[in-house]
Amino acid sequence: MKTVLRLSALAAICLQLSAVNATTNETSAQFTNGIAGGPALQITNETTIPNTDHRAEMVRNAFRHAWKGYTDYAYGHDELQPMTNGTTDSRNGWGATIFDALDTLLIMGLEEEYQQAFEHVRRVDWTHSEEPSKTFETNIRYLGGLLSAYDLRPDPILLEKARELAEYVIMPAFDTPNRIPAAFVNVVTGRPIRDTEIVLAEFGSLQLELVRLSQVTGDDRYERAGNHIIEMISEVPSRMPGLYPMIWDLERFAPTNSK
Q1: Is residue 77 located within the same domain as residue 130?
Q2: In which element (H, E) is residue 249 found?
Q3: Do 175 and 186 form a contact (C-beta atoms < 8 A)?
Q4: Strand partners, 185
Q5: Are 74 and 189 contained in the same domain?
Q6: Per DSSP, what are the bridge partners of residue 191?
Q7: Distance between the two ends of the chain, CA-based, in angstroms?
Q8: pLDDT tens across 72-98, in order?
Q9: What global pTM score does this model have?
Q10: Is 181 exposed, middle or buried (0-12, 13-18, 19+ CB in 10 A)?
């Protein structure tokens, strides 16, 4: 009986698919609800997918458009506010968007734009900032951006700026009693800003960039600093192996709750 029911259900599905296929072959597929009241999107049997080169160029053009907006109105600042053409400097004002874009510029083959970005990179001063540096963001955006670009196009200037950043801003975060990095560093004094609580991701996800920096510089201090975090975390009991709560007490180095 169950076999008959399964076969009947399968037959019904096949009939439905056949009906859909027949309808598709006879008429165009039409999305009648246009975006924001705009014209409906129509897909016909004659619709073809552009070749790969054409599609890649469309992506490059979209990036060029975004990059031009940034360079016209916010170059050197961290972010562009596209609705007002204003700027924000939430990441110390070192030009976070530029560092974010370095590897993308190289991958897309945008040489002129890359050279423009590179000129900013070579002049950046990590010791100049009115705000504390957030260790996590500085690591993933600035150090990560420099190392990604260096792997794509090795240049001693990129490596030197990465090393400077690590020495001036990131490594001082580890100057704590248990060598777990503080969430913030005072860029002017080069001292960590201690807090009572910190998010696991903010101190537990620095290894990729630090290990890579050790590999390309031959200085194992960065790798050892990153690995120390993992060693400390692994010594803390957890209800499920490898799964730890989100909020931690830095002084006790223990989760503050079970979430």
Answers
A1: no
A2: strand 247-249
A3: no
A4: 133, 192
A5: no
A6: 186
A7: 48
A8: 999 999 999 999 999 999 999 999 999
A9: 0.78
A10: buried
For CA atoms 174, 133, 147, 126, give the dihedral sign.
Answer: negative
Strands 86-88 and 133-134: unpaired
For residues 167 and 253, state if they share a domain.
yes
Pick from 122, 148, 164: which residue ends a domain? 122
- How many domains does the chain fold into? 2
Same domain? For 71 and 149 the reply is no
Q: Which residues have a Cβ under 8 Å from the Cβ of 212 and sit 6 or more positions away?
A: 147, 151
DSSP 159-222: HHHHHHHIIIIIGGGG-STT-PPPSEEETTTTEEE--SEEEHHHHHS-HHHHHHHHHHH--THH
Contact 170, 212 (CB under 8 A): no
pLDDT digits (tens, 9 = 90+) for 233-253: 999 988 888 889 999 998 889
Which strands, in side-by-side order, build the sheet including 254-255? 197-199, 247-249, 254-255
Of 146, 152, 87, whose CA–CA distance to 118 is shortest?
146
CA 198, 199, 203, 205: dihedral to nearest 10 degrees? -170
The C-alpha atoms of residue 182 and residue 198 are separated, in whole angstroms, by: 8
The strand pairing partners of 247, in sequence order, are 199
Rounded CA-CA distance 30/75 in Å is 43
The DSSP-derived string for 75-119 is TTSSEEETTTTEEE-TTTTS-HHHHHHHHHHHHTT-HHHHHHHHH
Helix (H, G, I), strand (E, B) or coil at 40: coil
Q: Are residues 130 and 248 in the same domain?
A: yes
